[in-house]
Amino acid sequence: MTGVIADDVFDAEADEIIRGCLDLTAVRSFFLYAGAGSGKTRSLVQAVRDLCRRQGRQLTLTGQKVAVITYTNAACDEILQRLEFDPRVDVSTIHAFAWSLIRGYDADIRRWLDANLLAEIAELEDKQARGRASKASVERAQSIESKTRRRQGLPAITRFVYSPTGDNRTRDSLNHAEVIAMTAEFLTSKPGLRRLLVARYPVLLIDESQDTARRLMDALLGVQVAFPTQFCLGLFGDTMQRIYADGKVGLAEAIPEAWARPRKAMNHRCPKRVITLINKIRAEADGQAQRPRSNAQEGTVRLFLSPEAVPSKSALEASAAARMAELTGDEAWLPGRDGVKTLALEHLMSARRFGFERFFGPLYRYEPMRTGLLGGNGSGLGFFTRELLPLANALVVGDRFAIASAIRRSSPLLDRQRLATAGQQQQAELARAKAACDGLRALLVAAEPPSLRALLRHVAETNLFVIPDVLQPFVPDVPADGADAEDDDASTEGGAWRRALDAPFSEIERYDRYVRGVSQFDTHQGVKGREFDRVMVVISDDEAGGFLFSYGKLIGTKAKTRTDIENETAGNDTSIDRTRRLFYVTCSRAEKSLAIVYYSDNPGLARANLIERGWFTDGEIEVMPA
Ligand SMILES: Nc1ncnc2c1ncn2[C@@H]1O[C@H](COP(=O)(O)OP(=O)(O)OP(=O)(O)O)[C@@H](O)[C@H]1O
């Protein structure tokens, strides 16, 4: 057996153990926790395929299915494809899965919502009674009012819906958090629902289970204890990659003795140098070390260290990339080649670097829009990305077929019924559509790039597309409510949109690519489970401005706060632990080479500490600007 083949089966015992667990006549639950790139997702897919091959007939006859839960829709699609859309397997995100269990239990949902809203209102009222008059108290009053209204409307709702995209914000719709909390509670308190789950899905496999909402995980562990041989819970994950606050702390310790615990020790993804680095990062947490494949390349790692204040971070990052090209001989590092995945600490940093901050920034700062904004969902966003953008692109290149298809899809001007009833006027209607497109094209190719507001007005004037409610206030020249921008509040939806509409239209395409995950940018958190040839990790505590993560504390240039020390003493998760895990996740995405651009509050001390801890050698740290 050659080394490479031996590597492929190095951890084969883990897959054998899982195979033994997945016997429908007497299942056994298991917990496969192993480091980055060890092939957990691969094992999951292989295990399901193998089960379907062996006992698929039984599944078909009993109408039972294997359930697979993944963290993102993208991961769902990937696994579905790898399983060739096998109808005996249901692959979904945790939210969709939870909803599939509780949908239709409308009376129970209503009761739960009623009690939950009542508790939330009581809590808000309590805060209101104790707090002073302030902006927060005004918001609390609004919140109390809207929750009270929602509660009063509950009896009239006959069927609740769940809207994963957020486009649907009607009274009968439930949000993500509610669906998870309800499912956890129903699974704990309703024996009927437990039986239903076990009868429908004798096997439930969860990828990235370190980040599964803890209440739901507790509920599922409860079901497993009640049905140990009828219900197999298979958990795949890595405690070192828990990066969302919702995941269950101490999951490993909560796993019953009777479960199988297969292990994997080889990293199939990263080059040797990256594996040594991630082993070091991990050493101070749980000491689990991985080994590389025998055919793994050496790989290159560099830390570009710079003070926080530099004239241009983009220029510095471009020169770091050029230096990587020189060091590795890999020209795909060169700026402009699109060969590098740049991972910023948070979305605004990506927006700044990729060039869509004027549009994104104001909307992102308006908290209630965040989830929708990052998923590209919502009618206002859809107007720009799904309606205007395809038409604009087609107009600029003069693609007549694409122009016609973009207009036909949703423009009221070419609405079939309207055209049919237009009779003699049909020609005139078509001429209007053409004039509207010509006008739009003229705006798009003008020397001065058009703002979103200018395009919005053109569309409204020409009736090219329907203007969604949320954008209506910005159509007239003077804001409808008479408010001028000065006293307009950025912390309202209207205020956020008003600012975002100043952005040039060119930002929409970049925003759209970013949220569809097809740009060269992402965040440290957003790339779980994925892999890229060349990775550039950009770190700047200042620019990220968050309190959840602190590279300064991890690297030791910044002192721990009292809260950190208290948390540490009490054995709680600290910002250092969280940052270490994040750093582990980002570095372990690299398949060939890894650059870390670190803007530090104290580059000298950072350098000394990193060398002393053995994370980087002296020669691997380059001080920037050179
Ligand atoms: N036994 C194997 N033989 C060959 N290649 C493998 C093997 N196991 C995994 N790989 C490859 O290694 C890479 C990482 O695998 P996978 O994504 O399944 O790991 P993971 O443990 O889920 O990673 P992470 O926790 O970092 O998301 C993939 O490209 C996969 O195809």
From TrEMBL:
Which GO BP terms sit in this record? recombinational repair
Where do the UvrD-like helicase ATP-binding domain residues begin and end? 13-284
Q: Per its UniProt record, what PANTHER family does this chain match?
A: DNA 3'-5' HELICASE, UVRD / RECB / PCRA DNA HELICASE FAMILY MEMBER
The organism is Stella humosa
The family database entries (InterPro entries) matched by this protein are listed as: DNA_helicase_UvrD/REP, P-loop_NTPase, UvrD-like_ATP-bd
Where along this sequence does the record place binding of ATP? 34-41
- UniProt keywords, alphabetically: ATP-binding, Helicase, Hydrolase, Nucleotide-binding
Q: Does the keyword Nucleotide-binding apply?
A: yes
GO CC term (a single one):
cytosol
Q: What is this protein called?
A: DNA helicase-2/ATP-dependent DNA helicase PcrA
GO terms for molecular function, please?
3'-5' DNA helicase activity; ATP binding; DNA binding; hydrolase activity
Instruction: Give the SUPFAM superfamilies listed for this entry.
Output: P-loop containing nucleoside triphosphate hydrolases
